[in-house]
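Marked as duplicate of an earlier ticket. Keeping the data here for the record.
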Amino acid sequence: MTDPLSLAPGSRVALRAPGSPAYVDVVLALLAQGVIPVPLDPNLTPREVAVAEEVTSPVAVLGPDEVTALAARRPDLGTPRARPLHLTSGTTGRPKAVWSGLLDDAAAAALVAEERDLWGFSPDDVHLVLGPLHHSAPLRFAVATRLAGGQVLAPGRFDPAVVTDLVRHERPTTTFCVPTHLRRLADSWGGAPPRWGSLRLLAHAGAACPPDLKRWLLDTLPPGTTWEFYGSTEGQFTACRSEEQVDRPGTVGRARPGRRLRADPDGTLWCAVPEHARFTYLDDPERTASTWREGPHGPEFTVGDHGRLDEDGYVFLDGRREDLIVSGGVNVYPAEVEQVLAGHPGVREVAVYGVPDPQWGQRVCAAVVGEVDPDVLRAWARERLAPAKRPKDYVGRDALPMTRTGKVRRHELSSPPGRSGDGTAAG
């Protein structure tokens, strides 16, 4: 195999290996040379691999042995000249590859400085990886830690017992996770969480954080430690300390430095970003054109999310455009209904989805994990939601179908659940 570090700038190299500290260093080494890593899930099926390689056209593929050997050479971990080429995680259709292009020196330095300045990475940091490194957010936090001279702990597939041991003995200072990780840790720790005094930053994103989990975070971890942010594979939008959310329940924060956010009359959110944070969809000019437009603060993009901004600039999400339910001619955003239902103390997790209905066009349904009677939830919803937004069906489940990054696979919710509640009465 040709030495990946000698490839021409802009060449793409697929990574099909489990996450590890070596994986992070290889990503950085490639990016320092202008070679573009394409992180792929090592568990992809042959069909999925074929589609990913068709979209990204890598000139080489690195498996576990090649990643280990390349990291053992202790390559230069200099300033990245690009972002990794991540595939979006859509549930249907052809995936999109988010391409930043090769960055000049000023843009490359700005890309590094943005993450360092926002999250305060330093040589003293020990970052605990809880999510899969082939996804953008876990990899971004790990890469930024190494660029600052810090250490990365990558224990592999999430296991609360392993995480607990690392917290006690390795004293991590930072971590990134999704609410699914937090739920499993809370269940595992019960009323006796390990001492985590070394932690200065726990950032979470990827899905709405239920109110009880947010309260648990604030009660369990040191003040000022926990943050939520809103972003996507394409770009980052907001950041918010958990304490700010006490006074503004449901917010995902205000625009990150260098960004401007605004909402169209229909609720579509747009974000103007600095030059180093711009992107295209690789070899897909039509999708790129539909994503970008010229705004009052420069080029701005959308990923189809809907929401609103309050008078202080705090963002509240209503949901994704592709998740929109149109019931009886009324737009229903699952995120809004989920936030209301999640406020009931008997609800541990909830996901709202639509199914075809001859009368309403779509029927609003709720999949619920927890010990709560459907009639109780109906009463709860009647007090807090307009009629069109109230679920017509409540389906009990042992767990919600999730991606490894903690996002609900809504397209699977109409499949037979692990257990069922009464799903027949009207909302």
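See parent ticket for discussion. The first helix runs from residue 21 to 32.
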